[in-house]
């Protein structure tokens, strides 16, 4: 076809060149005769081409439709539906299958495991093929006979998109995506995100924290997820930011998992240090789907996001950044991120955030005081949630969870020790965990009491030495809000 097109083009050029020469040198009556002759040969040529087109179509009567994983920067959700449909539904027609066991189910689940699958719909045969380009982006190619064109375009495509969505809803499969290039997860390897099924047992029922605070968070999440019309009415992008702060082991990551389970959202775990620059961050964030939680853990460690820098310091940093960039270009081995605070802020409240709807952004930090006030101001991070050391109320909820205990004679002692001790729920949970085959509530509670007493002695020693040296113990988690 291509060759035929070229021949036709160069043939036409020669005809026009000939005509120009004739115009210049030939008498009128000859010109008219030659003109008529030329017109009839052009007509014959186009006729031959039409004929050859029909000939090719006759011998290759197949039509192809391509569905790519990404439409520009945006993830193509039709692609995801096709993938779900093909991997779960079209197994009876596939030659190669993959068996796996899913969560609580005892049965093996069969999934398609070949690159080419035949499917049948209302008597029409179609073939699906997956192609991966050099950058890792995938494209589904659908091939069918042209006589099935109407069935395929009018109803088969609609059918598979709907089926794919239904299967996803039924399986309630949430995904955990990461952009970390070092992770070698499969099977959905893409250049932007890699993902696995998200299966975390965390829930708000098992999360030990102040019950009033928990209630507030649950109400906020419910208002957000049902707020489609409200956000539209007030003209705001349907998104919400949560900042979780507190010492290590107080349940920040657990709360994110509980949020995902509650709302049935997928999680995008953003590794900022693996992102080259602001434009790569933008690409990544635009590639996220709706109904998702975008998580940036330990934001203070991921980037230099400290606030109130002096101009002099800023200038010096900018100089160092550009120098480093040049150096990176040179040896291309330093993996440092060049995402800036403004790049991040731009995403949070810029137009990028409006590209997708129903998205939650969560930042976590152990050091609230280290963050730039611009990053955590209200409106950007709508709700600031302090995850604190274990209180007696949180302990009771952990004991109920781990030991099935509502009350115990040792509770009074534990309550008074907890008033002094700064112990994370993770450490309490560690002591309450079953160490033998049988639950030994007394043993676990005594372990906890020993741990609390040790903590209190350590704190007392620290306080004593602080007083002696005339400084106060620094508390980075002082409540700012
Ligand atoms: N509030 C809590 N309620 C129930 N379990 C908790 C709580 N906090 C911590 N845990 C337990 O401790 C483990 C560690 O908690 P998690 O990873 O959520 O802490 P974190 O605050 O994210 O810590 P880090 O700041 O180090 O990331 C969890 O697997 C969970 O079992
Ligand atoms: Mg964590």
From TrEMBL:
Please name one Pfam family that this protein belongs to. AAA
Q: Which cofactor does it need?
A: Mg(2+)
TM spans, by residue? Answer: none
Which PROSITE patterns does the UniProt record give?
AAA (PS00674)
Q: What SUPFAM superfamilies has UniProt attached to this entry? A: P-loop containing nucleoside triphosphate hydrolases
Which reaction is the catalytic activity of this chain? ATP + H2O = ADP + phosphate + H(+)
One biological process term from GO is:
response to stress
Matching entries from InterPro entries are given as:
AAA+_ATPase, AAA_N_dom, At3g28540-like_C, ATPase_AAA_core, ATPase_AAA_CS, Mitochondrial_chaperone_BCS1, P-loop_NTPase
Q: Which keywords accompany this UniProt record? A: ATP-binding, Hydrolase, Magnesium, Nucleotide-binding
What are the protein's GO molecular function terms? ATP binding; ATP hydrolysis activity
Tell me which family the UniProt entry assigns to this protein.
Belongs to the AAA ATPase family. BCS1 subfamily.
Q: What is this protein called?
A: AAA-ATPase At3g28610-like
